[in-house]
Design brief:
By secondary structure, this protein is mainly alpha-helical. It has eleven helices and no strands.
Amino acid sequence: YWLGLRHARPGTARRAAAGLAVLLAAASAARLGVLSPASYDADLPRRLARFAAGFVPPDVSPAYLAGLVAPIAQTLAISVIGTALGVVLGGALALPAAAPHAEDDPPGLARRAAAWLSRAVLAVLRAIPEVIWVLVFLLAVGVGPFAGTLALGVHTAGVLGKLYADTLEEVSPVPLRGLRAAGARPLQLVIWGAWPEARRMLVSYTLLRWEMNLRTSTVVGIAGGGGIGMALYNDVQLGFYPRVATLILVITALVLATGALGDAVLRRLESASLASRR
């Protein structure tokens, strides 16, 4: 819009935007010293190769693997309970945050105030990263998985609440009008009118967020939130790089398994939906 891009031809606007992006990237690289020859160390490749060699082979001794059962179970519990907390809190805030269709339910002052307040709370919850939340909860409840679970829960509530509210706003008003004409209450409108249409998107967002929380729980654990992240932090600090490699492989396997489980649930949900329409 500024620089006259609003009224420029599409090709000119794209070239100008690409040129602006290149200039911005170059300025950022120069600011960070990436383009300076003095920032490069001739011995860096050799040191990186020696560092990477310390991870091979991973530590797969039975005694070490047996010791990982507890932190892995704790990480899974943190991700599941944190996601569940986010679903409950985010869902509760999403209902007033979703704007109704004005032609069907003209919002009054109280309704607009509730929507604005809910949107503001959701924005604050998701604006603060999980790592900051876990530092706050570490002061409140102490070091351990409870702090990590609360941190994931409140941030997830902000993210899922926004996604839930946007999804509910896109639901077709036609079935809602029929239910409203039959005297349905607001909760009945959500269960019997909005849920059947929005179900797949809501479940998809929830499963995706669970997968993300499983990864994030490692970072939260490094900050003191319990789980496999604390084991990873301890092994890094002690220089046990073969164990670090094992933990990285375990985290990767957990995330892949979670993604496969989520895909299976969505396929099952789609099959049930198609069967109900026949």
